[in-house]
Design goal:
By secondary structure, the protein is α+β, with helices and mostly antiparallel strands. It is built from 3 helices and 10 strands. A hairpin with a 5-residue loop joins strand 4 and strand 5.
Length: 192
Amino acid sequence: MSKVFGIILVIILLAAIGGGVYVYWIHSQKIADQEKEIEDLKKGIEELKTTEAQTASGTDLEFTETYKSKDFGYGVRYPEAWNTLETPPKTDDPNRTDVVKFEDANNKTVVTIIAQSKDLEGMLKETFEIQETTSVIIAQKQGEKLKVLENKSGEEKIYYLVIKGDYLYALSAAKKDANLLKEMVETFSFTL
């Protein structure tokens, strides 16, 4: 009996050791997979930080493309990798408004340009709380730079406003994109 008991004990020990090795191997595989996922996430975060830093600073973006509005008589340069989304104005509306959004390569709106009747300036300014106003020159015209807090979202934004003829031109972006907005404002021109 002791021989049979010894064999059973050896089998039990081998099964326990084999099971332990298997559990250790599975656990090691899971840890390795998790470490790889963590490393991939870290790389993704670093890429996003780099992209956001480049977008915020505008340092490596070249403003090579030109957007022109024939109806509202202005042009502005923007980075080649960006897209424009236009909301065409209703031509029969005397208070027609033209909205153009400039999106980065990640399809995130960075800059918005609104052209509208100058009579609507007060209505535009009612949509936010003005925190600071500075006089600026935009396309050789006297304009304003506004630091605002939007009423709906509470988001801090920067607006550049300039009036020419019957139209008010408003260029805006989130505060974090202020440098890009400033670069675009510097390329803004009237074409009529």
